[in-house]
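CORE FACILITY INTAKE
Project code: CF-77B
Contact: R.S. (postdoc)
Sample description: multi-component assembly, two entities in total
Requested service: structural model of the whole complex
Turnaround: standard
Below are the sequence entries exactly as provided by the requester. Do not edit them.
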Amino acid sequence: MIDSPTETVLHSETVHLVIPCRPEYVGVARLAILGIASRMPFSYDEVEDVRLAVGEACTHAVERAGAAAATIRIVSTINSHALKIEVSDDIPAGSIAVLSEESRLLKEAGVDQQGLGALLMEILVDDVTVDTTSTGTHVVLTKYAPD
Amino acid sequence: MTLINPKKATDWTQDDTETLFLRYARNRDPQMRDRLVVMHQNLVRYLAGKFVNRGEPLEDLIQVGSIGLINAIDRFDSERGTKFSTYATPTIVGEIRRYFRDKAWSLKVPRRLQELNQTASKAQEYLSSRLGRPPTIQEVAQRIGATEEETLEAIELGNAYDTVSLDSKMMHDSDSSPLSLAEFVGAEDESLLNLEAYGDLDHALASLDPRERAIIIHRFFKDMSQAEVARQLNISQMHVSRLQNRALHQLKRQMSSEV
């Protein structure tokens, strides 16, 4: 018998996904997240919420990257009590390089779109941290398993 | 909603918004509210668009989102220093998410994907014969009017529900003509149907608030009288009757929307 450690170690699994920072790959990330989030005891609505939040984080990176070659790194960690998804890019903080059609609509309405994306993520998952530095942006989304 | 002399959202600036909110807060003029609604249509449209791949028409989502917008306009206090869009977004998104929840949407998703999967495989067949080669995902997506992501999702998830044509031939007896699969399909099993209805009922019951649920369970599963239930819950019999009617109404609505 092995001595059991004093604290319970959560068994967790990790999926790494690195995609080009281009609009056509956001769908790929969303599809992968669909599969990953489905491993959790989430309802359809919750899976879709996670997917939407990750899509927001990626879209935000895509809009900042513009034509510049960049990658988005998505690391999803699953364990019995939460799904944690980290979305990181290597695009220096700065202004939006390209605007999607829908973002243009928002800008016309005088809405701060970056703030709105962060707000939307906060509504959709349980915990959001956004860390922007000169070397890139790091977003951590956490959704807890239902009790 | 009738809009009197609607202005385009772009005709307004941030200053106008603040002035309008201040004026609306003072006089609650419906015309002023209509203007505020029109000005923020783009916000609703943007947020509703985020939920469109969940299988409900965009127009419906914009409608429910607009209800959230109107509520937010009515409750917004511009002197608190929060931007209206920040204030309104949770309300609008909340209304849209509630719409999915209330429609017991999660029960319909597999069916939607199944349908999309069938549409996709028909399109695949059609395009194969027309192009003389298997079509790409992009071509299938274009043909069925879905995004590539949706198409892939439908193909991937829909595979779990492989379907066979009812006309497919099952037997080749040399004398008789072949029988189709349809001839082997039995009648619907009543008790299974009941079981299914029971499942729906279970789901609908879960949507009631605890007190209404207790009333339904006492009245119809434990055969208690309204008076007995009233005593148990420590409320008047009239109140029980009212809550019961409301609960039954909601159950009926829930279950008919699930059919």
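Facility notes:
- Chain A has a mean pLDDT of 85.
- Chain A touches chain B through 26 residues (CB under 8 Å).
Invoice: internal transfer
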